[in-house]
Write a structure and sequence with these properties.
The chain is α+β, with helices and mostly antiparallel strands and 192 residues long. It has seven helices and seven strands. 32% of the residues are buried.
Length: 192
Amino acid sequence: MRACTAAAATVVVTFALMLGGCAPSFPDISVTETPTAPAQSPAPTTAPTQTAAPTADPAALACDTVLDESSLDAFAAHDYQLSDDFAQRAVDQGWPEAAFVTSGGLLCQWGVVRSDASEHYGLAPITAEQRATQIARLGAAGYSNEIYGDGELFTGALTEGVTLHYLIAGDHWFVGFSTARIDEIRRNAGLS
């Protein structure tokens, strides 16, 4: 554990930090299932319990609006805070996820301040040319791929407790630590 912590401290501003560093030592707060409806059904004049899906324009979305309330509560329970500079760091340091930002999408990170405990996710529109570039990049990096719903899912190897998943579906693509997180983002962005 000490070696893992020392390594994470050494690369605090590198891509390893972005991937969550030594994540196994922190609670798993990833989404595992879709929340169920309340036991009682609402009265006919009551508004629906879920908020209406926002527009599919990633520029109109925010890091907290693409998550379920239960996910936000789980982050808060583990003292995760929204990073205000993660997207800019991805661009400045040339991380692969910078493509979400440069194509007008959303790239978010929640984590414990001054710690390697974090989770990131993103969504963005993708052109045919960008799709070909990303598929080639993911293949060269050793990501496995399979059909997932209406898209193609690319899954990376477990690295320092984190498995990254990319989904390319229609004219959008997504990144998350789990397929459940990607499904949540798609649903809340009105893209599923």
